[in-house]
Amino acid sequence: MIFSNNEINNWYKSKIGKFTLNKIINYLSNSIRVDYNQKIIIHGCDNFLKSLKNIFTSKNIFFIHNNNRYDLSSSIYKLPFEDNSIDTVILFHSIDFCKNPHNVFREVDRILKDDGEIILISFNMYSLLLVFKFLAIKSFFWKKRIIGYTRIKDWLNLLSYKMVKLDFLIKIPPFDIKNKKVINFVLRLENVLSRFNFLGCINIFHAKKENLRYIDMKIWKKSGNIIKGRFAKPIANKSHE
Question: Does some domain include residue 222?
Fold first, then answer.
């Protein structure tokens, strides 16, 4: 069972959801440098787009949702951009609420320029979410499809994307807490567990599209290198002759 866009949007309206969203927004605002010559598209749920729109104000940034309140109303499977025309794509839980994540990656790969970047935000299966997925019946995460970060890394590798960075946010249990003492304890727990990066409930992938350039055989012979100029040309070991 997959998440719906509205379910994710409503979860981010809860106390723990707002706490998580603020962490993600702060992370992106500190790690992304917006070049006004670059074209960036951002796809995700309503609360996320509203928050980022107040931070990223460049005319070359396009906010995409399935309603008409943003720059473009479009399906993530068929984006209205030419091939190799976008510098950066930010996907906020797009693969969590899409039925076919493979097609999402293919469409993003189509529009990204060579050396373009993708920033992907999703739920982390290998965290406390795993408990809520199988045991907490009334939980938002119960029996939902959560894609492991190892599988996402494999998909990116298959499309020739180089992993730049993988971070995990929110090490606390993903449910609302009303007791102030418990809240203070959980916040201290977040600080303690922050050293264990992989335990976070949120994955943030930062990957770069590799540009595979053609190498002329004449140049290869002169330089003595092979594939992409990374490896030295093999030399026979004279001791075995």
Answer: no
Q: Please name which of 230, 202, 235, 184 lies closest in space to residue 48, comparing C-alpha atoms.
A: 202
What tens-digit pLDDT sequence spans the chain (241 residues)?
788 888 888 888 887 788 888 889 988 888 877 777 889 999 988 888 888 888 887 788 889 887 777 888 888 899 989 999 999 999 999 998 888 888 999 999 999 998 899 999 998 887 766 666 666 566 777 778 888 888 999 999 888 899 999 888 876 666 555 555 555 555 566 555 555 556 678 899 999 998 765 555 554 444 444 444 444 445 555 554 4
Residue appearing with tokens 């408990």? 131
CA 234 to CA 241: how far, in whole Å? 15
Q: What are the CB-based long-range contacts (under 8 Å, 24+) for 104-111?
A: 104/76, 104/77, 105/155, 105/156, 105/159, 106/159, 107/76, 107/77, 107/78, 107/79, 108/79, 109/159, 109/209, 110/83, 111/41, 111/79, 111/81, 111/82, 111/83, 111/84, 111/85, 111/86
Residue with tokens 């990204």: 112
Whether 15 is covered by a domain: the verdict is yes
Instruction: Work out whether the CA dihedral 7, 9, 14, 19 comes out positive or negative.
Output: positive
Expressed as residue numbers, the domain containing 33 is: 5-215
Q: What is the CATH number of the domain that holds 65?
A: 3.40.50.150
When computed from its CA atoms, the radius of gyration of the chain, rounded to whole angstroms, is: 21
- Contact call for residues 174 and 125 (beta carbons, < 8 A): no
CB 39 within 8 A of CB 85: yes
